[in-house]
Amino acid sequence: MNWQLLPQFLATGLLSGGPIALMALGLVLIFKASYIFNFAQGQLLLIGALITWWLSVEVGLPIWAAILLALLLSALLGLLIERLALRPMTGQPLLSIILMTLGLSQLLQGLALLLFGGAQRNCPQLFSAADPYKITTPFLHEGNPIVIILKQNLVWSFVIAILGVVIIGAFFRYTNTGLAMRGASEDHELAQSIGLRIHRIFGISWALAGVVATTGGVLLATSSGLDLSLSVTVLAAFPAVLLGGLESIPGTIVGGLIIGLSQGAVAVSRVHTIRSASEIMPYVVLLLVLIIRPEGIFGQKRIERI
Fold it and tell me: Residue 190, Cβ neighbours under 10 Å: how many?
């Protein structure tokens, strides 16, 4: 164990938890509205990042304009998915709808390969890579203080991700549309009986999930590059969302940060299979927590009368 590197890896892991929390938020949005666990969220993330890259590099738009247009297109894609793929499944068994999202994930992955190819791409940088932030810690190594070096894109990706989670949380709590979505998530039939338009709410949820996925995809692609394996990064969000609670937006932040810290803690060890260990660690943490609290840290305990 290389202890002098522990503060560096923990800080890096904590910051990487921000995008994980944002990806987990996309899963929570769909689950809160429709009680469906969306297995196509990773492919939405990939498609959004690829559209941003194409608009910026191939079309030649400024990066900020490419991101805004990609967010709009991702919202439209979410609405299209809800209208064409999921609305016809209304009234079908829950397992059938979940399998629909699995099939949708493979369809979107195939479309991404067909339209963009499988080559590695470099996305335009949103933040400077030449001037990292430096934090001097009180810890000493060989008489010198240990300095934590943080890349700008890592820091600002964390800030943007957490800000996005907070904005979506405020939307659910303080807006009429957000309150309607929360009400619909409790009981669909009761919500319809008081005049809520369930399909409209589902469409908004999928549109928001598309926007959130694109934001997370752009943040990850500018940090680590862009290829078809980007969709696999959402696997780290599955433990995060289950850890925080399937219905909890604040839980996505806590779950994402815990998962990021666990990966940073494992990364500091001198293990040859370090990449595999970092990928496995979120699920180890998840299992330990779910043994103690199966509904997650902020999950709701539901009592049903039989």
Answer: 11
Q: How far is the C-alpha of 224 from the C-alpha of 230, rounded, in Å?
A: 9
pLDDT digits (tens, 9 = 90+) for 149-193: 888 888 888 999 899 889 988 888 888 888 887 777 766 677 777
Distance CA 238, CA 24 (A): 7
Q: Are 39 and 291 contacting, i.e. CB atoms less than 8 angstroms apart?
A: no
Q: Do the beta carbons of residue 236 and residue 23 sit within 8 Å?
A: yes
Q: 259: which 2 tokens? A: 């998962």
- Please list the rounded mean pLDDT of every run of 10 residues in the chain (306 residues): 74 88 88 83 92 91 92 94 85 83 91 87 77 76 76 88 89 84 72 79 90 91 83 85 83 88 76 60 80 77 56
Cα(214)–Cα(162) distance, integer angstroms: 15
Complete domains list, the chain, with CATH: 3-292 (1.10.3470)
Q: Give the tokens for residue 9.
A: 């890896």
- Diameter over CA atoms, the chain: 70
Angle between helices 6-34 and 237-244 (to 10 degrees): 70
Q: Please list, in sequence order, all residues whose beta carbon lies within 8 angstroms of the beta carbon of residue 298, skipping any fewer than 6 positions away.
A: 244, 245, 248, 250, 251, 254
Task: For residues 29 and 25, give the distance between their C-alpha atoms in angstroms, rounded to a whole number.
Answer: 6
What region, left, alpha or beta, does residue 245 occupy, with left being phi > 0 and alpha being psi -120 to 50 degrees?
left
User: How many Cα atoms within 13 Å fall on the side-chain side of residue 126?
Assistant: 24
